[in-house]
Amino acid sequence: MADESGRRRRTKVERVIDAYDLDGWGERLEAAWLGEGRERTSLRDLAREFNLAVLRAALREAGESPIDADVESTYRILTDDDVSRSDEVRKRRELERAGVDVDGVLSDVVTHQAIHTYLTDVRGAELDRDEEDRLDRKRETIQRLATRTQVVTASTLDELVQADLLTERNYDVFVDVRAVCGRCGTDYAVDDLVERGGCDCE
User: Fold this and answer.
1) pLDDT digits over 77-119, tens only?
2) Is residue 78 part of a domain?
3) Domain co-membership, 106 together with 135
4) SS3 state at 8
5) DSSP state at residue 166
6) At what angle do helices 43-61 and 12-19 cross, to 10 degrees?
7) Are residues 34 and 76 in the same domain?
């Protein structure tokens, strides 16, 4: 997407990399996603690693010398839904006293979908064809199961009608396989969810 001058708008990941001086993270994300020289890293895990790097950079900018365990603990307290409100408030106050702009850091947290957009649209990265084929096969499996369920259900209704156990009508059978995100409650058609690469809630 371009702005009014015709230039491409910078993605959130690009802006955050510059804002926190995360030099080298573009190459790091791409190599990890493509599995160059190692096992592939999922987009969700990449988003988490990137967000930890953002928090770590913010802590260092405030004069802190964070260790990885502390950064991960802090990130969990600030972002996980199952953390008590009192723990979150306590951690926020602690960080603010240290000079960390907590709201600013949290606004710069990125989703796995943002990582995907950056990798594909900005860096031009593409998964190996085998990975794409695997997703297509899984989608086809779900579609076949849904179709099979629809056919069996329609046949069963016909049998019940023939046995006078069901009133005779023209019954249309629909099977809609859906998934609901356990975090934000968003409802997706499963095929759409797979195509999107998962829910993109924070």
Assistant:
1) 999 988 899 999 999 999 999 999 999 999 999 998 899 999 9
2) yes
3) no
4) strand
5) S
6) 30
7) yes
Query: Looking at the structure, do residues 164 and 116 belong to the same domain, yes or no?
Result: no
In this structure, the answer to whether residues 113 and 138 fall within a common structural domain is no
Tell me which of 122, 142, 169 is where a domain ends: 122
Is 198 exposed, middle or buried (CB count within 10 Å of its CB: 0-12, 13-18, 19+)? middle
Instruction: Tell me 128's DSSP state.
Output: -
The confidence score (pLDDT) of residue 1 equals 45
Residue 1 within a domain: no
As a residue count, the chain comes to: 202
* pLDDT in the model for residue 143: 83
Q: Are residues 138 and 164 in the same domain?
A: yes
Give 47: exposed, middle or buried? Use CB within 10 Å, 0-12, 13-18, 19+.
Answer: buried
Q: How many domains does the chain have?
A: 2
d(CA 35, CA 39): 5
Residues whose CB is less than 8 angstroms from the CB of residue 108 and which lie 6 or more positions away in sequence, other chains included: 12, 16, 19, 20, 54
Residue 71 predicted with pLDDT over 50: yes
Tell me, rounded to whole angstroms, the distance of Cα 78 from its chain centroid.
18
| Residue 61 maps to a domain | yes
Q: Which domain holds residue 150?
A: 129-196
Nearest to 196 by CA among 135, 118, 149, 119: 135
Is 162 in contact with 114 (CB distance < 8 Å)?
no
Assess if residue 24 is contained within a domain. yes
* The token pair that represents 160 in the structure block: 């019940």
Token reading at 129? 């064809």
